[in-house]
């Protein structure tokens, strides 16, 4: 069993958690690129607006959602060790993250999830338990993770959803021990994230330094989304897309977790999957096809029809904001879609 202890060190100066500047998505495209993007966008928009929220809800409900435990043997074996947060949220064997030496064991409830241009764009995982905090941080250290998205709170509706696995005050350090292997995480700064775009989300950005075996260190940015409701959705503004834009240049996987690591987590992954297709100049697939591909990697991703609708509404809002869906008749259909969406999710 892993052991954890907290300690406080003198603070050390560091740059602001969101001080880096990156170019905006679709910023200054060439004329040819813009025409190609607009063509792909309109195809996706027209298909989405034809379905409307009711059709998308029916589409989501029609998708099969189950656990095939024959494809989750490591998950079943880890049950007795108490490494799984939920008995009914499985972890697929085919693309699960494996902890490598010198770590004393390989299992963690986490899966690599690909986007069209990146075979390991994400690590989708459950919220750390007290006994899996060391595993979580070693995973981040091992895979050179530069960004972590935490989409849940420690406590929600009176239920424990996540262990307090990271230090949140400048200079504080948390030390973990697992089978004689030690790993520590230090908070270098923690600020309320200031969005460039219009956004209602309350996000805390924390700069963390991970020191692993051999005393090598890695720096990661931890985004804690404080007000995304369990099994629900936040405002369909540009908040998620801005955070994803910040993390997109990272070479390592982006770690995403909520409590189970499938609902809110799956919503973020699906949004980036669509953006990845767009930025690569590919045809944007139907939402159903995309979600099936994601679920083949992280089982039962996206838990509710509201989350499925949220992804589509965010993308429609983004295209509208960029003035990439101003064709005749589209605006009226968009307005009708938005009106129905508000009735469903509010």
TrEMBL record:
Residues 1-32 are annotated as: Disordered. Pfam families: Y_phosphatase (PF00102). PROSITE patterns: TYR_PHOSPHATASE_1, TYR_PHOSPHATASE_2, TYR_PHOSPHATASE_PTP. It comes from the Eukaryota. CDD domains: PTPc. Residues 1-10 have a biased composition (Basic residues). Residues 238-309 form the Tyrosine specific protein phosphatases domain. Residues 56-318 form the Tyrosine-protein phosphatase domain. GO terms for molecular function: protein tyrosine phosphatase activity. Residues 15-24 have a biased composition (Polar residues). This is Protein-tyrosine phosphatase.
């Amino acid at each position: 069993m892993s052991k954890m202890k907290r300690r406080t060190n003198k603070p050390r100066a560091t740059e602001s958690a969101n001080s880096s500047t990156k170019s905006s998505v679709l910023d200054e495209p060439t004329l040819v690129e813009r025409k190609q993007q607009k063509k792909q966008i309109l195809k996706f928009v027209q298909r989405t607006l034809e379905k409307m929220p009711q059709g998308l809800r029916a589409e989501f409900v029609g998708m099969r959602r189950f656990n095939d435990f024959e494809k989750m043997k490591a998950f079943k074996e880890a049950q007795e060790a108490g490494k799984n947060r939920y008995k009914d949220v499985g972890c697929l064997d085919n693309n699960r993250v494996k902890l490598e030496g010198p770590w004393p064991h390989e299992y963690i409830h986490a899966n690599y999830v690909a986007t069209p241009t990146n075979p390991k764009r994400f690590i989708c995982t459950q919220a750390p338990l007290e006994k899996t905090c060391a595993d979580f941080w070693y995973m981040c250290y091992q895979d050179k993770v530069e960004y972590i998205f935490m989409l849940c709170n420690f406590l929600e509706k009176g239920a424990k959803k996540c262990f307090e696995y990271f230090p949140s005050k400048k200079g504080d350090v948390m030390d973990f021990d697992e089978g004689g292997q030690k790993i520590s995480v230090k908070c270098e700064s923690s600020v309320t994230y200031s969005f460039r775009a219009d956004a209602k989300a309350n996000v805390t950005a924390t700069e963390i330094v991970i020191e692993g075996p051999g005393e090598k260190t890695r720096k990661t940015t931890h985004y804690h989304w404080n007000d995304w409701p369990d099994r629900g959705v936040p405002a369909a503004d540009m908040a998620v897309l801005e955070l994803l834009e910040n993390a997109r240049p990272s070479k390592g996987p982006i770690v995403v977790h909520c409590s189970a690591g499938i609902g809110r987590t799956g919503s973020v992954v699906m949004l980036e999957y669509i953006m990845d297709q767009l930025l690569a100049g590919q045809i944007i697939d139907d939402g159903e096809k995309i979600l099936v591909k994601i679920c083949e990697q992280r089982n039962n991703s996206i838990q509710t029809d509201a989350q499925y609708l949220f992804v589509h509404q965010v993308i429609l809002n983004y295209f509208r904001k960029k003035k990439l869906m101003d064709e005749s008749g589209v605006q009226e259909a968009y307005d009708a879609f938005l009106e129905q969406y508000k009735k469903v999710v509010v």
